[in-house]
């Protein structure tokens, strides 16, 4: 049997493991799910005859190398910074590797050796990055094949709560890593290009510069800019494009409300707050407000944020219990961002019966035969339950499908790569449709800057 080693049995691995278990008989697969928690690995495989759970400490070189050496192909579902040792083992034992993570500099440095050994190190094959690359390249390649010239590419993605589980004023719950949500947009200005001009949005203004999107059947959304929209300009072959913008999708009103935390300083992760463990939620909020001998914390918050009495922003803050003097932070040596994450988790954690939702939206503006045209491509995926979430499905299924394509010799180009080649994206996108990951492409009027009209 062909041995597939999956390292990491966390939330993102559930749909991936189920897919390979279902395919194991016809594809002659033996699946080893390795995790630090043997119990978790065992839960993911159940009693399937073609699978085994393995307790694995990836920092134990002997254990890790032994597991990799027995595999036909390795899937790493670990955090991105932990892939590199797995990758080096794969080089040593001549094993293909698949991850859903961004290609790090350390991973890219292995490209030449991977090519020499005819090994495929497929990365960025999850959701974002992953499905975004594949669905974008499909349309871009089709436009080029028709003789079109790309003028505009905008790409948006968001992990949200499904409409049937959307029951708070923020229209949001944590469906993925909460820390990434709290720290979103930090680390430098957002950078993109618009009509040939480079644009920059500082963190202090990021959540007040949003774009609106309409998705049929799901209503209106907004998007704020990702930190570096230009990262994939060359990868996509869009070096000459006039507009290139990537953003994160939220429900309308979220960004304006989130900006309150930014302006107060609650998203700062650069310093530790004294005596944070014994701090109440009310004291945390008051820490960012000026002293006043008579005004309450509530009044000071309204004044500094300029919130009117009837403004929905006030109700959103109240819903989070930010002014509760009895709730304790209970986090020693915590940063403001860590405390905010704790407070938000009280209100934004998914309930057992909640479902999540992934929304992806691409805009392709192009010129063909002297005429300007545009295609909008939209995808909405709803999760099944708390195990087989939309996030787990859209991250894990492309990884699983790519793994089989590599094993079966359908993907052949060696080296460290992401899924922008037709031999990769075409069969994966086609199979994803069977699992409800479907892009609806629609021709719309080109919307670009025209000095004669504006």
TrEMBL record:
Keyword annotations from UniProtKB, A to Z: Oxidoreductase
Keyword match Oxidoreductase: yes
Pfam (any one): Sacchrp_dh_NADP
Limits of the Saccharopine dehydrogenase NADP binding domain: 4-121
InterPro entries xrefs: AASS, NAD(P)-bd_dom_sf, Sacchrp_dh-like_C, Sacchrp_dh_NADP-bd
Transmembrane segments: none
Domain Saccharopine dehydrogenase-like C-terminal: 126-437
Name of this protein: Saccharopine dehydrogenase family protein
Source organism of the structure: Flavobacterium procerum
Organismal lineage: Bacteria, Pseudomonadati, Bacteroidota, Flavobacteriia, Flavobacteriales
